Amino acid sequence: MKKRGISQIVSTILIILLVLAAIVIVWQVIENIVERGGRSVKEKTLCFETSLEFVEGSVKCDATVDTINGTVSRGADSAGYIKMKVVAANNATDSINAPASLGTQFFEDVLVVPAPSSGESIVVKVAPVVGENFETVCDPSDTVTVTCS
Question: Does domain 7-149 correspond to CATH entry 2.60.40.1940?
Answer without folding.
Answer: yes
